[in-house]
Amino acid sequence: MSANKQATFTHTKFVDPTPLPESVPKVDELGVTSAPLKSASFFIGQYCKEYNDDFMLCKSENNDPKHCLTEGRKVTRCAINLITKLRENCGKEFEAHWQCLEKNNQELSACRTPERTFNTCVFDKLGLEKKIPGTPEGSEQIHNKKNPVY
């Protein structure tokens, strides 16, 4: 026998009101959803590599979240800087690519055409080239192949 029970949801936000210490620099949120982040992810990885490496090194030294707040803020600030540059220089191409990802369940393979246009724009205007980590040396990147075999 089953029972029907009404779902109850809380209307309070789970936010810790404790302010951060003065030693932790203030930084805004990125202000983007998962699709724009996925669209720009390889460029963020390349553009913010030094900050990401510092953050990961800090995390490996100490697992306490408070220990690496400063490094994490630097990574966020760098990503904000890149997203702003992408919007200013390649806004139309960037939006076309992340909208495609949004409509295709975040599948990169379904959005190769707008991705190529976006990658070309970013290379021409910002000098960043998309390189997927772990790709074997000398082999063509999957997003550059005309007829990829999966």
TrEMBL record:
GO terms for biological process: mitochondrial electron transport, NADH to ubiquinone. The keyword Repeat applies. PROSITE patterns: CHCH. Keywords: Disulfide bond, Electron transport, Membrane, Mitochondrion, Mitochondrion inner membrane, Repeat, Respiratory chain, Transport. Its main location: mitochondrion. The keyword Disulfide bond applies. Gene3D superfamilies: 1.10.287.2900. GO terms for cellular component: mitochondrial inner membrane. Residues 90-123 form the CHCH domain. Coiled coil: none annotated. It is found in: Mitochondrion inner membrane. It holds the Pfam family CHCH. Accessory subunit of the mitochondrial membrane respiratory chain NADH dehydrogenase (Complex I), that is believed not to be involved in catalysis. Complex I functions in the transfer of electrons from NADH to the respiratory chain. The immediate electron acceptor for the enzyme is believed to be ubiquinone. Belongs to the complex I NDUFA8 subunit family. This is NADH-ubiquinone oxidoreductase. It comes from Thamnidium elegans.
